Amino acid sequence: MRTIAVTGGSGKLGRYVIEELRRRDYQVVSLDHRIAEGIPCRQIRVDLNDLGQVAGALKGADAIVHLAAIPSPAGYPHHTIFANNVLASFNVLEAADLLGIRRVVMGSSTSCYGFAWASKPLSPAYLPVDESHPQLPQEGYGLSKIVGELTSDMFARRGGLEIANLRFSLIAAPGEYEGLAEEARHPERLRKILWSYIDIRDAASACTAALTARLQGGSVALNITGDEVLSERDTAALIAEHYPEVTDIRADMSGTAPLFANALAKQTLNWQPVYKWR
């Protein structure tokens, strides 16, 4: 496995993934709807909603990291977000199947659980939230991520693809930590994301680890989150004040323990988040 195609290579996480892959001596090609300055690899302009373009651009790739998507419910109507994200994911997987590309890393999101963008009150059924927690989104973005994961399951069953769906929480770049430190002083601002984040460098290393990890069952979903809450308050206090109705606590929530469980990702990918907001 030498050539990796990264969709959304011009995006926030895509740039870090490309740099990480190049550090590991992979050949990389970026597939995006635009050609961007400063991307240190070959770039191909692609409309991911066109299967022919996707298949043509992926020819010669050994594996794919699919990160291209409308990244939140903000800025577009829900139906546009849903249609774009779902069709792009389907086309990437269909093209991979047609071309004989066996390994795909898919960018998913903890938004699939529904908390982050809920318009009606929604609390976790239990804590910490692991990959088996019910997925209850109230908008098109979180729903698109669920459908993307179901699509991955289908291709794994049908064609034997090996697919890692990485459920990223808020992705934080080094230059954003000053602003996030201010947010951490106001726990009510980050309540809906369960004070969860992942450093962008750790997110990129998870993507690269997923390219070679042994995947049980063909398609797997993994929480890619940090090892601490993004708050100046400790975890037990956050739960007591903001989610007192959640009484099913399934792990040690002392100190700054995270409210999304990431043990499965650590075990499956042989990966460990390193960077912390503090």
From TrEMBL:
GO MF, one annotated term: oxidoreductase activity
Keywords: NAD, Oxidoreductase
PANTHER family: 4-EPIMERASE, PUTATIVE (AFU_ORTHOLOGUE AFUA_7G00360)-RELATED, NUCLEOSIDE-DIPHOSPHATE-SUGAR EPIMERASE
Family: Belongs to the NAD(P)-dependent epimerase/dehydratase family.
Upper classification of the organism: Bacteria, Bacillati, Bacillota, Bacilli, Bacillales
Annotated organism of origin: Cohnella rhizosphaerae
Domain NAD-dependent epimerase/dehydratase: 4-213
Name of protein: NAD(P)-dependent oxidoreductase
Entry keyword annotation includes NAD: yes
Family annotation (Pfam families): Epimerase
